[in-house]
Amino acid sequence: MTARVTVFLVRLSRARKALGELVVGHPGVLTTDRYSAYNHLPAGERQVCRAHLRRDFQAMIDRQNNGSVVGEDLLTYADVLLGQWKRVRDGTLTRCGFRRSYLGWLRTGMRDFLERGIVCGCESTAAVCRELVAIEPALYTFASVEGVEPTKNATRRAEAGSSSGY
């Protein structure tokens, strides 16, 4: 038995039906992108990949409109979160210490930024922010479930034989 499994399967569709054929029962926590086929998963069984979120926040900035400031704030908080998580991984901060010292204010701040994004006047930014508010618990599963990382980069490293990235 193994604690972690990386599976690569090529399908013609990313539909929920294809996911259901691959994932049966309760396999543990799946680290996913924001694709809607995963939205049925309970928050305790899903971690939304933080590296994907960083790209979403950068896209908000790159649009150079009313959503850009929201994107900048979200990206800043995302980088603080990932920076402190590196300390958990390298042993200089405990998971409990991370939750106690960082998770509360980071989560509250990100929620405030997402709510600002919903009303910022940029429909693309607003749509992403609405979706993230709806699945918000799945943004933080890594903080409470041992062995879960905030990104899919461990999978990417296994795929590429690399050790770089968050």
Number of strands: 2
Going across the major beta sheet, what is the strand order?
1-2
Shape: globular
| Strand residues, percent | under 5%
The SSE string, one letter per element, is HEEHHHHH
Helix content: 40-55%
Low-pLDDT runs of 5+ residues are 155-166
- The number of helical runs is 6
Layout of secondary structure:
Elements: H1 16-22, E1 30-32, E2 46-48, H2 50-62, H3 68-90, H4 95-118, H5 123-134, H6 153-160
Parallel strand pairs: 1-2
Structure keywords:
2 strands; two-stranded parallel sheet; globular; disordered C terminus
Describe this structure in words.
This protein is globular. The protein contains six helices and two strands. The model is unreliable at 155-166 (pLDDT under 50). It starts with 15 loop residues before the first helix and ends in a 6-residue tail after the last helix. It has a two-stranded parallel ribbon with strand order 1-2. Helix 4 (95-118) crosses helix 5 (123-134). It has 166 residues and is mainly α.
Compact description:
The protein has helices at residues 16-22, 50-62, 68-90, 95-118, 123-134, 153-160, and strands spanning 30-32, 46-48. It is mostly helical and 166 residues long. The two termini are 27 Å apart.
